[in-house]
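Onboarding guide, step 5: your first structure request.
Type a short instruction followed by the sequence, for example:

Predict the 3D structure of this protein.
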Amino acid sequence: MISTLRLLLLTGCRLGEIQTLEWGYIQENCLKLPDSKTGSKKVYLSEAVLEILSKIEKVKNNPYVIVGNKAGQHIIDMQKP
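The system replies with structure tokens like these:
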């Protein structure tokens, strides 16, 4: 959950964009989000964000950066934090 909050703060992305962020969207120093509230967009990443992403463990058979409790799913219910 800490990684999620840090990514929100450092990228300026919306909660849903970070919750559903897939490893395939990360290309070099940017996120290429295929669908956001305003359509597809590119978010450039700082060194701090790249460091956070490098410390997140990839889960086999799960495309999401921030995984949920169910296998193959992304994290949900982050409104309260």
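Each response can be followed by summary notes, for example: The chain has one domain: 1-81.
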